[in-house]
Amino acid sequence: MLANLMCWLAAPELCGSNKTFTLVNYCKETIWPGITRSDNHSGDGFALKSGQSTVYTAPDGWSGRIWARTGCDFDNNGNGKCKTGGCGTSINCTGPGSPPATSADFTLGEPDFYDVSLVDGFNLPIVVKAINGTGNCSTVGCDGDLRQNCPSELASKDNDKVIACRSACDVFNTDEYCCRGTYGNPATCLASNYSKIFKQVCPAAYSFALDDPTSLITCSKADFVVIFCGSR
Length: 232
Known about the structure:
By secondary structure, the chain is mainly beta. The protein is built from 4 helices and 16 strands. The strands form 4 sheets. A 7-stranded antiparallel beta sheet has the order 3-2-5-8-9-15-11, with helices on one face. A 5-stranded mixed beta sheet has the order 4-1-16-10-12.
């Protein structure tokens, strides 16, 4: 059902050519993955218990993101909210996910492009692996836990527990941290003390908007595994 809906939303004419995403939850608690398209943020969502995995499909030409929502409370009708990564008031996402949230971003085609981004902050470790592809096809993401190293001014807390680490752009909203205005190009938007902390823990992920372009990977003919909270 999810696969059919995804295909219909993205591009019905491409439904015969799908990419497979295997989502694996190695976190100690249930998470609620969110999946949205880049163009209009329509998407899906579901619960994934600790130790569980599920398969999700998308057609070639699909562009979007996958992330984890945490601390969610949904009623029997699928209505509710989450402590991090919320994307509306329904279990099915109607938005791209509220920061702070770690995201895996994909543009599918020939070739496929993918990365893991901390531009909107960090809530859980995410690693993306390409399976049976050709090209670079490197594993990207963050298997470290930034919540343990989060500067106090960026920390998002619930009952005094750090549940996520916000980006400097989200907290301070300046052109320098957000890579906009006169800082909107690679020559002027440089790593900050905050993004360097992110990069130290997560060297294979984007730590700010114009971070090292080698964090963006190109791969052909692969399926993907998206791993939350480690790769055991």
